[in-house]
Amino acid sequence: MNVRRCAAALAAAAVIGAATPALAASPSPTPSVAIPDGLYGTADPTYDGVWRQSLALLAQDTAGVVPADRAVAWLTGQQCANGAFAAFRADPAKPCDAKLMVDSNSTAAAVQALTALGGHATETGKAVAWLKSVQNADGGWGYNPGGASDANSTAVVTGALVAAGERPEQVVKGGKSPYDALLTFALPCTGDGAGAFAYQPDKQGELTANADATAAAVLGALGQPLNASAEKADKTADKTAGKTADKKATATASGCAAPATPEQAARNGARYLSTALAKDHHLVSALPGAENQPDYGNTADAVVALAAAGHADEAAAAQHWLEANAPQWAAQSGPAAYAQLVLAAHATGTDPRAFGSTDLVRLLDATGPAPQQTATKKPEASGTSDDDGSTTTLWVTVGAVVLVVLVAAALFLARARRRQQP
User: Fold this and answer.
1) 197 phi and psi angles, rounded to 5 deg
2) H-helix or E-strand containing 319?
3) pLDDT at 133
4) What pTM value is reported for the model?
5) Buried/exposed code over 143-162 (b: 16+ C-beta within 10 A; e: otherwise)
6) Which end of the chain has the least Cβ crowding within 10 Å, N or C?
7) pLDDT per residue as tens digits for the range 297-319
8) Where are the alpha helices (DSSP H) in 199-240?
9) By C-alpha distance, which of 222, 314, 236 is closest to 266?
10) What does the alpha-carbon distance between residue 115 and residue 62 come to, in Å, rounded to a whole number?
């Protein structure tokens, strides 16, 4: 879910999963296109418009914010007639043609945002149909249609399928499902990066551990969308493929084992992330010719993945580091960065309005059109309350019994008075 993934993928960068720029990096150049009304952020949207808008809307939804109609309309207006989304369409009135580079990541992110907001079944249905139509024979997806499958794209599409009510294990091409594809990116339990996921095999077919890909693939293997949480994972664990052990076993197991199932691969990936975060509680990025820098975006993604995998302690430690260090990064990076932090807070059950000393929701809202409505505190997750409805039913029943008793007593007293009258 890295904020620069779209630009990196479109550029077909050799440094797949390249690092987030350091805080000292120069500001973004003047946008080459006008910033459309309704779009979040002021940076050039050419490579990330739909992605950042989708993350912003998704994060707002988790925080109880009802976005402005024109913010949602901008996103739906980016969709092509065939259901796909490109990273950005400067002129939505112009029909999509073969020159427009539509992609799986933008489409999957839009599906997740629009599904969360509700009321967009037509748009999400068309988008899901398009995603299915460009599935690769190995069961996965590349960034662009026809491109080799990668862990990040396959994971975000898997999350979109789940969000839209699909069962990913039943979405197959050539007999392979998204879970089968994700397993091909899982490293074994020996050697460097044991248990991690690779973005893609290299030209020799070798896998190299990639923290960004690992965070994404852990969610994908768990059958979780971008707005994952421990509670959401508990609810959907029995609906995803390969879940032969219960959630408790997934959350508490610490060893690495052969990634024969999506569940085990996710468990291994979470263990890898936990180890990578153990010392400094944040991930690092290495740009060629530069010193290692803290990777705020990937750390936020790792928090979401760890929380979904049941590693609450490791997720909490990394989030505390983000609370102390990431707001300045988000202020420079824009709405998608704020959204990543909001989603990290959501995953751990933390109020994003009290992210350390930062109100992430207020700052995210300020990057786009004023929302229709914003909650003053973190909303209760649907269905996560300890009260399953039985308490309410009990009190209704008690009330009814008391009412019957009072009516009966009143009737008894009335008859008694009549008998006493001469």
Assistant:
1) -115, 150
2) helix 312-333
3) 98
4) 0.82
5) bbbebebbbbbbbbbbbbbb
6) C
7) 999 999 999 999 999 999 999 99
8) 211-221, 230-236
9) 222
10) 12
